[in-house]
Structure formats: structure tokens, C-alpha cells
Amino acid sequence: MGFNIKNNIYLVGNVDWEIESYQGYKYSTHKGSSYNAYLIKEKKNVLIDTVDSTFTDIFIKNLKNEINLDDIDYIIINHGEKDHTGALPELMKLIPNTPIYCTNNCAKSLKGQFHQDWNFNIVKTGEKLNLGDKELIFVETPMLHWPDNMICYLTQDNMLFSNDAFGQHYATSAIYNDLVDQNELFVECLKYYSNILTPYNSKVIKKIEEILSLNLPLDMICPSHGVIWRDNPTQIVELYLKWAQNYQENQITILYDTMWESTRDMAEAIAKGIKEADSQTVIKLIHLSKKDKNDVITEVFKSKAILVGSPTVNKGILTTIASLFEFVKSLEFKNKQAAAFGSFGWSGESVKLINAKLVDSGFALVNEGLRVSWKPDEETIKECVKFGKDFVKYLNK
Ligand code: FEO
């Protein structure tokens, strides 16, 4: 059965307590996730989105308990990605002529993925669907999360169905934002924003301003993942506006990998120097081989500056560091400073290579970096401590 959210609106999605990663292994889901679909039963009955294919059978069974499938007048697909459309092909086998309302890009995406020529009805920003006494208003939201996304707003009930926007990969039975552990919730919100939406900061700001300018009353925001925002729903909108403005905290993160602990010793000594120079800044050390890449990205997102360290290996750098840059570059961080460090035994190219990757990823270099040959001794550890102190000294200069 669905869960009655308000008046004639029902949550008909599924909670995924077991999922450990999303989009293959691109995004770790330590706290699970959910695929929130919604059923609106007005004079016209509307299904908004479906669920991941893992839950197809249970989704359709629950939906049948809530409504005769033939009584569904319209299906709204806010986004074609399969975590929201996985159950659609099986559903459409049962109600094949039901009109699907979506953006032009979403229709392309659905055709490309499922190779079906369903009854597509293309909608654009500002267009409305009459449900009898109420209307659904559509707003295209490209890149939040894919080029095909849109959101829709239900008049009178003042509900915004935002799909990926304002969501979190967070499994809960509590449904509403005010009923869950607030620390857990906002950790997942920040991870979601930093790993998924950072490259689209300017689009996030523009789209939110566009939506706010409509002056629509807002009782709840109903995303397609995680909790429904009913308590002060605009708090997550305000957070998005804050995060989208090249957000940073007073944090420096030292990211490194190491083979025989020399680069790790450097990282520790550099952290000591930063601490001695500035006791107020939060310093985090992350051994990249031992930490989850998405949690790492969240720390980079929060940082005003990073230091990246790798030993030289085969005239290159360790693959963990190279892989990190592939991810970091794609997120197009702005207004962050950086420096490189690393130990070497023979040729010693790592610092130069990391510098190039930092610049290529949009970071401003604070200095030329620090190389240490072989194992740092007492003198070179002092150099590393000084390097840390100087790094702080020259930040923003
Ligand atoms: Fe939740 Fe972009 O899919």
C-alpha cells in the first residue's frame, strides 16, 4: 500500500536498505537509498515516476493495492534515469496506452534505454496538466541531475515533486525530514550535492531563483530519493543556494597515498606545520587507498585548500591519486587552493605531475610543492613542518 502524504497524494515508492553503491560503483550509499514515486488521486489520477527495476514486482503490486491500474490517467516521468524508470517497462505492459508526460530529452532517454514508442507527451516549462480541481505545473530543470530532468508542482496542495533535486541517498522508514536523525540527513544531503551537483552550481542558482520568482506557496518538497521535506521545506533550498556558491569551510584536507610510509610521514609533518601556524583551521588527513572516494570528494568540497601527495612510481604517480583527479576535475571546483608533495627514490616526477593535474582541475597553486628523497629524516621532517606553516601563510596571497 502507498503512504498517504497529504489529501489525495500517496507515496508509492520503495526503500532500498541494502544498496551499497549507486550508478554501478560511482556513488557509495552507506545509508541505503529510496526511490520515491507518487500517486495523486484527483478527478484525474497521476503517477509521478516509478522505481528501480529491483523493486518492479513489489512496486506494481503495491500500486495495484492503491489503484486499479487502468484508472491511472497520466504518468509523469520527471527524469529518465533507471532508478526512477526501471519499473516503467513492466508497468507499461499492463497499461500500454497511458500517456507519459516528460521533457523532450526524457523521451529521447526513455526511447534510447527501453526501445519503446510509448504515448509520449512532451512538456516544457510553464505548461500545465489539469487534474480536475488542481493542476500540475511543469518546470524543466536540465542538469539537475541529467539534461532531461524536470520538476512539477501541484497547485492547492502546494507540493513540489523535485525528483533528484533536494534528495539524498538515505533509507528511512520515517519518511519526513523532521523525523530522522538530523546529522545523518544533512551528511547525506551534502555528500549528494558535492558528488553530483557541484559542476552545475550556476545552473542550480539560476533554476532556484527562477522557481522562487514564481512565488508559489510550498508545503512540502517531495524528492525521488530520501526524505520528504515537510518541516521548513525551504531549508534545503537555502542550503543548495549556499552550497552552489563555491561553498567552503575553514578546512584544509591533505590527500595522499604511500608505499613505504615516506609520503605519509610528510603528510603528518605538513599537518603539524599547518596546525602550528593556524590552530583554527580544521585539518583532515586522508589515505586515499583506505577511504571511500565519494566521502573524499565531500571533504574536498568543504575545503578551502587541499594538499595532494604521492610518491614517484615508474616516473608517474600512484593510480589512486590519478583516479582522484579524474573525479575532481569533472566536478569543476572553483576558488580552491592547493599544493603537492611526495617522496621519491630515483627520478622524482610526482610533484610536478600533481601540480599539472591540480592546475588542470582548476586549483590555484600556492607554491611549487615539496619533494623529499627516500625516507624523511629529522631535518626533512622539519622542512615538511615549515612547508605546512608556509602553506597557511601564503594561502589567498
Ligand atoms: Fe535518481 Fe538521476 O537519478
Please name the defining characteristics of this protein.
22 strands, 6-stranded parallel β-sheet, binds MU-OXO-diiron, alpha/beta, single chain, 397 residues
Written overview of the protein:
The protein is built from 12 helices and 22 strands. Helix content is 35%, strand content 22%. The protein is α/β, with parallel strands linked by helices and 397 residues long. It is elongated and about 80 Å long. α6 (201-213) packs antiparallel against α7 and α8 crosses α12. A hairpin with a 2-residue loop joins β1 and β2 (9-11). The termini are far apart. The longest helix is centred in the last third of the chain and has 17 residues, at 378-394. It binds MU-OXO-diiron. MU-OXO-diiron binds at residues 79, 81, 83-84, 145-146, 164, 224-225.
- Give the oligomeric state of the chains in this entry, treating copies of one chain as homo and distinct chains as hetero: single chain
The total of helices stands at 12
Strand content: 15-25%
Q: In which range does the helix fraction lie? A: 25-40%
Q: Could you tell me which ligands this complex binds, including any ions or cofactors? A: MU-OXO-diiron
Strand order of the main beta sheet, please? Answer: 1-2-7-8-9-10-11
- Helix- and strand-based class? alpha/beta
Distance between the amino and carboxyl termini: 60 Å
Low-confidence stretches: none
* DSSP E strands, number: 22
- Main sheet summary: 7 strands, mixed
